Amino acid sequence: MKAIAFDIGDKRIGVAVSDPFGEFALPLETYYRKNFNKDIEYLAKLAKDRFAEVIVCGLPLNFDGSKSEQTLKTESFVEELKKHTDIPIVFEDERFTTLEARRILIEGNVRREDRKSVIDKVAASYILENYLLRRKNNG
């Protein structure tokens, strides 16, 4: 199953895609947000153009699993995205994905000023990887 993942932030949206067999995740791009409607249109078209069979959106929960203000913003964004695509959309817990992405980039000696442009797409790849692994383990 071909999947696309979005790490939705206030300023940027990280995008990752799976290989055609749904085995692994690859960072694709960091989309810099324009305005709400253009963002929705762009992501819906991107998912369609990439032949995604599922859209995985990171759900930013608090460390204890409760919802935050960012959770509510993400849920609202996804509700609007659902109106612009017939591709199923699922949420995946994104706790620690940005921290893991930051750690990997630091270990890879990516300069601080360069990290901002890639951290979101790397985080999206972790979100997608977690989804694919969970799906595989659950049969």
Question: Can you tell me about this structure?
Answer:
The chain has a 5-stranded mixed β-sheet, sandwiched between helices. The model has no long low-confidence stretch (mean pLDDT 89). It is globular and about 40 Å long. Helix 2 (69-82) links the parallel strand 4 (54-59) and strand 5 (89-93). Helix content is 47%, strand content 23%. The protein has a single domain, classed as Nucleotidyltransferase, domain 5, CATH 3.30.420.140. It is an alpha/beta fold and 139 residues long. The chain contains 4 helices and 5 strands, in the order βββαβαβαα.
Helices and strands in order, then pairings?
Layout lengths: L2 E6 L3 E7 L6 E8 L3 H14 L4 E6 L9 H14 L6 E5 L3 H11 L4 H26 L2
Parallel strand pairs: 1-4, 4-5
Antiparallel strand pairs: 1-2, 2-3
Helix pairs in contact: 3-4
CATH class: Alpha Beta
Query: Share of helix among residues?
Result: 40-55%
- What's the name of the CATH homologous superfamily? YqgF/RNase H-like domain
CATH architecture: 2-Layer Sandwich
**N→C terminal distance:** 13 Å
Any key phrases for this structure?
five-stranded mixed β-sheet, 139 residues, alpha/beta, single chain, Nucleotidyltransferase, domain 5
